[in-house]
Amino acid sequence: MGGAGGKSYMGWWGNMGSPTQRGVVTYLLSPFEQKPFAGALHNAIFNTARRTASQVPYVGVAFGIGYFIYSTANAKHAYLTSKAGHAEAEGH
């Protein structure tokens, strides 16, 4: 039987008959020598602190302005709903 099989048509699994590749360098590290999470917790804590501290001037100013507007509006509302505020509004 001379049918087209795996070895007679294009070569067996990945072997297409092309020239061997040259100049490819592969480096391996034993799984027992790897430490995939070495320093992960330390870096997470200090990078988060550094990045948060770098945003404080922007977020802090916006928060301060917002809090000032909120507290001023609450004080004004409390005054206008008080007896003195009603008395002042009647004069207009």
UniProtKB/TrEMBL annotation:
Compartments (UniProt record): Mitochondrion inner membrane
The entry's keywords: Electron transport, Membrane, Mitochondrion, Mitochondrion inner membrane, Respiratory chain, Transmembrane, Transmembrane helix, Transport
Any one cellular-component term (Gene Ontology): respiratory chain complex III
Primary location class: mitochondrion
Gene3D superfamilies per UniProt: Cytochrome b-c1 complex subunit 8 (1.20.5.210)
InterPro entries (alphabetical): Cyt_bc1_su8, Cyt_bc1_su8_sf
Membrane topology according to the record: Single-pass membrane protein
GO biological process entries: mitochondrial electron transport, ubiquinol to cytochrome c
Function: Component of the ubiquinol-cytochrome c oxidoreductase, a multisubunit transmembrane complex that is part of the mitochondrial electron transport chain which drives oxidative phosphorylation. The complex plays an important role in the uptake of multiple carbon sources present in different host niches.
Family per record: Belongs to the UQCRQ/QCR8 family.
Quaternary structure and interacting proteins, as annotated: Component of the ubiquinol-cytochrome c oxidoreductase (cytochrome b-c1 complex, complex III, CIII), a multisubunit enzyme composed of 3 respiratory subunits cytochrome b, cytochrome c1 and Rieske protein, 2 core protein subunits, and additional low-molecular weight protein subunits. The complex exists as an obligatory dimer and forms supercomplexes (SCs) in the inner mitochondrial membrane with cytochrome c oxidase (complex IV, CIV).
PANTHER family reported in the protein's UniProt record: CYTOCHROME B-C1 COMPLEX SUBUNIT 8, UBIQUINOL-CYTOCHROME C REDUCTASE COMPLEX UBIQUINONE-BINDING PROTEIN QP-C
Protein name: Cytochrome b-c1 complex subunit 8
Species of the source: Circinella minor
